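Technical note accompanying the year-one report. For the benefit of new consortium partners, we illustrate the data format agreed upon in the data management plan: each record pairs a sequence with a structure-token string. No post-processing was applied to the example shown here.
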Amino acid sequence: MTVLNPRFPTTRQGWLAALLLLAAVAPLAALPEGPEADPDDSPDTGFTASGEIRQLESAELTLRPWQPRLPARLAVKTSARTRFLRQNKGRRADLAVGELVLVVEEPPNKSEKDQRRQAAEMRKQSKTKGTPRRAARARAVVRCWKADNADVNPQNRQIARALLEGARPFFRGEGRGGVRPPGEESRLVLGAVTNLEPFTIRSAKRVVEYSVTNDTLVLNHAPITLASIKRGENVLVQSADAPPAGEAVQAAVVAVTPRPRLKLEQQRRLILRDRRAADADGK
């Protein structure tokens, strides 16, 4: 006897309604800010999807998304304003002044927390004005593109966070000779690089000096063209807004990234989604 899961619709109309509803949901959960988030960090409001390119025609892509909540086929439109990037692992020597970067900070230890507390008290007592400064350790640095004065803004911050999501396969974990992926304790800071020794960035609210070592994960994003992207490659797509149900995503960024590692439950849900889509096409 077949047991139906009560969470899933059981009629054709129910399936279609569910697919239309789920198509408008952003697939990737936002990374948490942590308790020390800057007050000017706005919440993510864009749309991010990752998938394998199944069709590539002119300025439009068709993806098979890895997010089970999305439809089995996702249309993506590009324009002259779309950024095309290819993600790869870099080195400390790749870091350069004038770039827009997203830094994944290591959580402060007890000594660092005490130092920050003392520095904050000293600033408060002296009533010093100017841009606040602090020091931290960098677990990873996501290199985005050459920065200008308008680049440290909420829209580009969300793009940088999307690129970080696409780079999760590079976070191999300490047990495999790499670094741990960002978690709830991770603070993410977007800024323009102003100095290399020490590695210093200026964010929207403060200047931060980072300790960067050869163990720090550096993620590069080389500019490419649409013509260099091939069918079968995995891409991450970011848009300012989620598309209306049944319509194409208007991409702000298309980045070639590694295929994500999927858990068994995700794979099972993808299989079910694709079967439902095939059944709907057949009817």
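Partners are asked to follow this layout when depositing records. The two ends are 25 Å apart (CA to CA).
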